[in-house]
Amino acid sequence: MAQELSRISRNLGGVDGVGKERTRIGMERNESRTSTRSFNGVGGRGKQPGMQGSAIFIHPDGAGVAAWGAARVFSVGPDGDLNWDRLERIGIYKGHMRNSLGATSHGGATSHAFGVKVVWDSYGMDGTEALTSLSGKPFSILVEAREAGLATALVNSGHIAEPGTGVFASSSPSRQDTDFISRQVIESGTDIILSGGE
Q: Which of 15, 20, 125, 180 keeps 20 to 30 A from 96, CA to CA?
């Protein structure tokens, strides 16, 4: 199992989990692979002339390397490949918080969206403090993708303020302030926003 996870990490652009390096999921410009199935042309906010591509952020809330390994063994055996394993780019990180071995949905999602460890009770911020991402910018990878001219989308099976995707487009001192968070997500400039309810 350890060898399989090591192989996956090497082959799919895994990271050291300490915040020193992070693979940008789906953020490469690849003109030869652009098709009508991508988000090209949808919204088009900030799209640079000649730039093609899209950025899709998948945040499997609560599903880290151990969950993927268990799903692999259960579904396709230890040497099989799940669809996750076939992604061209993926970043794997250790999910503990800066002040806790256990994570929260909002704290873990914030680490995912910004590439840095934050305190346990964080929603797009480091506690109640403004956050600088791993790239040195004062916003999430979603905003970086949009500013690079890529079309972006957020898809969440929960409500719009659910942190798994909400922290990519919103920052709030309190996860409970769902009206404020929802407004930020809606007004974020993200091309496609899909959410359900709980």
A: 180
